[in-house]
Structure formats: structure tokens, C-alpha cells
Amino acid sequence: MTVVFYDGECRFCSAVVRFVLRRDRDALFQFASIQSEAGCELLAEYGVPSPGLDTMYLLEAGQVYERSTAALRIARRLRGYGVAASICLWIPRFLRDFCYRVIARNRHRILQANHCFLPTEDQKKRFLGL
Question: Architecture of 3-115 per CATH?
């Protein structure tokens, strides 16, 4: 099981989920809001009892990745982004996570859309706890 955990109340995070859904043609990823019961329980089961809402998590092959590592591991599995994401993973984590934290701190200002993301019926099957 490969699960992307995201802040379900953040428009920027929802835009990232939509981005992944559009490019994940092989349906590799499932999704869970960090605020959902399913998301909280699964993260706690894998050693993240108090997840931060400003952090994206990825559960992949029984291991939880966070922040830039999670984002790049997701991108690496999307068509057209694999090579660039793999190269970026060579950048030291403290530098990648610094950039990640700047974006995370400002994510509510970066995208101020006036609508919520509503998954289609097919997409709903990929969301845990819906």
C-alpha cells in the first residue's frame, strides 16, 4: 500500500493531490487526510502518533517518509517527473527540507482558491476514510 497523507483543510495541499491524481495513471497512490480517522490511525500504526499539518507524509513499502523526501518520492513515480525527482533526492535533505518548510509556512497564501476539491466517483475509491 502506498498512501499520501496531506492536510485536508489546505487548498495548496488539495491542489497537490489533484496534481498527483491527474498524473498517476496507474493508480499507484491512495490518499488520506491527516485529519481523518483513517489517516491518523494509519500514521500512528507506522510510528507517527502526532502528525504535523504542515507536513506531507508518504507511506511506501512499510516506511513513512516526510516533507521533501515524501514529495520527491511521489514525483519520482509520476510519468515525466522521475528523472528530475531522482536527481533532487541527491540534494542534502536539510537543504530540501528548508525549501519545503518555506513553502509549507506560506502555503495558505500561495494558493487562495475559493473552491474545495471534490474527487470524482472513481477517485473516491483511492481516498481512505471517505
Answer: 3-Layer(aba) Sandwich (3.40)
